[in-house]
Design brief:
With 509 residues, the chain is an alpha/beta fold. The protein is 23% helix and 22% strand. The structure holds flavin-adenine dinucleotide. Flavin-adenine dinucleotide binds next to helix 1, strand 11, helix 7 and helix 11.
Length: 509
């Protein structure tokens, strides 16, 4: 059979694309996923169904690709969790549901993406959400598949209340809706978790479309490479239960994420020619941008002994702070996550954790293959904090958080001695930089490894509707397509991208 559309990867983007495109009952679509499928929300294991399961160590190994990456010049052993199941990373993430800000899309437009202004993307952010708190506002949606809510302050844990009090007294403005354009400061995080259940694209979009006869889902099926004939993608080579097979389609869409998508392209001979030759892959099409421009939100982990027992496993991310670093030209370029965590490093110490994070880094990294096999992890080099501007802003955030936690009276009775932190290095810029580089960590928001842009941009891999330059019948729709990161956790933006390109594809684009 030749399908009309073949979608590789059933994560945040893939499930949205599959569900929207099969609204047209004449389109036969095959959705391929390397990980397992659970046919209903009730059948999901607890680490996937419930919102608390999010980082490595909590997500079951069978649901995680188990990547590792080089964080910085001084840290080379960083776990990079990525969801490996129907739902992808939307099924394992922390559910903070923040949109990119208007300034992000002004930057995307300046980079040559004139179809991606804030005005053009806003309708798709609205279309995908059902905001239980602000759904009636003009810039929100109330009938999309993804449920979103904020914890009312009376339900916040003691750590969250203390954090908000300290931030308010430090002068940060009140932020009741962090998805309101122009907002900043301290307030409840919007979360795509309803009644404890993570609103992944599997339990929302895909669940509602599963019974369509024109939607075919094949799980436990790894895509090894694209099938290419005369400059055209005609399908994929897959491995399912130890058997290699070929599957064919008029159009193939890569939704395998910021790591999986460039990996599949390069294994198929599409990517930077010198690198492909290094690993013994025949070059089909030289596209230097594939695997370059690796973006993330670099962070560090600070933690203190917690002086009470957290009762609720999903006891974090209720209140959040965004602010602009001193003298930064980038509005809202910093974000801080705070939570009370049971146990510590696999042990028994309850802890307060704080993650001051660069919400828009200027540095970027690179993804490269180790071998010509899909079974070997790509090399991920994030190069966090190599840029002075990134280090300066991160230093300020570390100092601010340490001061608020250690000196504000709101934290008396909440936390005690330091478990992780720079200690005396806080007083000296160079020492703090060394600590920062040695403790750099992922913000879990890898993106931009196959960025869209104008054909005149040598690093652009695809056009503004995801069509891969130089190869017919092939698109990319996932986090890898983003030209740069956004000043927000990126899941809502990846879903918006899928909604927008699905609408364009349905319209024949
Ligand atoms: C631990 C964690 C916490 C996070 N927290 C948040 C948060 O709170 N808020 C937020 O906004 N964002 C968060 N994110 C980020 C966000 O979830 C991801 O950026 C987003 O889900 C990426 O969507 P995607 O469609 O690009 O890729 P994914 O959702 O990762 O989907 C890719 C899919 O492709 C499949 N795949 C890959 N390679 C192959 C192959 N060769 N063959 C077949 N299938 C393949 C994968 O198994 C996966 O199902 C978090 C991410 C993680 C990992």
């Amino acid at each position: 059979m030749i399908y009309d559309t073949l979608v590789v990867g059933s994560g945040s983007a893939g499930n949205i694309l599959a569900s929207r495109l099969t609204e047209d009952s004449t389109r036969q679509l095959l959705l391929l996923e390397a990980g397992p499928d659970y046919a209903s929300t009730d059948a999901l294991p607890a680490d996937i169904r419930l919102g608390y399961g999010t980082t490595s160590g909590i997500i079951a190994e069978s649901h995680d690709w188990g990547y590792t990456g080089v964080a910085s010049l001084l840290r080379d052993d960083m776990p990079i969790p990525r969801g490996k199941l129907v739902g992808g990373s939307s099924a394992v993430n922390a559910q903070i549901f923040l949109r990119g800000i208007p300034e992000d899309f002004a930057a995307w437009t300046e980079m040559g993406n004139d179809r991606w202004s804030f005005e053009q993307v806003l309708p798709y952010y609205c279309k995908l959400e059902n905001d239980h708190d602000f759904g009636s506002e003009a810039f929100h949606g109330s009938d999309g598949p993804i449920g979103v809510r904020r914890y009312p302050e009376e339900e916040w844990g003691p750590d969250q209340r203390a954090w908000a009090k300290a931030c308010r007294q430090a002068g940060f403005p009140e932020c009741p809706d962090a998805n309101s354009p122009g907002s900043t400061g301290i307030g409840p995080y919007p979360l795509n978790n309803i009644a404890g259940v993570r609103q992944s694209t599997a339990v929302t979009y895909l669940a509602a479309a599963r019974n369509r006869p024109n939607l075919h889902v094949m799980a436990d099926c790894t895509t090894r490479r694209l099938l290419l004939e005369n400059g055209r993608a005609v399908g994929v080579e897959v491995e399912c239960n130890g058997m290699v097979d070929m599957l064919y389609a008029e159009e193939t869409v890569l939704c395998a994420g910021a790591i999986g998508t460039p990996q599949i392209l390069m294994l198929s001979g599409i990517g930077p020619a010198p690198h492909l030759q290094e690993v013994g892959i025949t070059v089909i099409h030289h596209l230097p941008g594939v695997g370059g421009n690796l973006r993330d939100h670099p962070t560090v982990n600070l933690s203190w002994n917690l002086m009470y027992r957290p009762t609720d496993l999903f006891h974090w991310h209720q209140a959040g702070l965004r602010f602009t670093a001193t003298d930064s030209h980038l509005y809202n370029d910093m974000i801080v996550y705070v939570g009370a965590g049971p146990g510590y490093a696999g042990g028994s110490v309850d802890h307060l954790f704080v993650r001051p994070t660069l919400n828009l880094a200027v540095g970027n990294g690179e993804l490269r293959l180790r071998t010509d096999s899909i079974g070997d992890q790509p090399r991920l080099n994030y190069r966090y904090f190599e840029e002075q501007f990134d280090r300066e802003r991160q230093r300020e955030a570390i100092r601010l958080c340490t001061e608020l936690i250690e000196e504000h009276p709101a934290f008396r009775g909440i936390c005690g001695g330091v478990l992780d932190g720079p200690g005396d290095a806080l007083q000296d810029d160079q020492a703090l930089d060394r600590w920062m580089l040695a403790n750099a960590d992922t913000g879990h928001h890898s993106s931009s490894t196959c960025k869209m842009g104008q054909p005149s941009d040598p690093m652009a891999v695809a056009d503004q509707t995801g069509r891969v330059y130089g190869i017919e019948g092939l698109r990319i729709v996932d986090a890898s397509l983003m030209p740069d990161s956004v000043r927000a956790n990126i899941n809502a933006t990846v879903m918006m991208i899928a909604e927008k390109i699905a609408a364009e594809m349905a319209g024949g684009y």
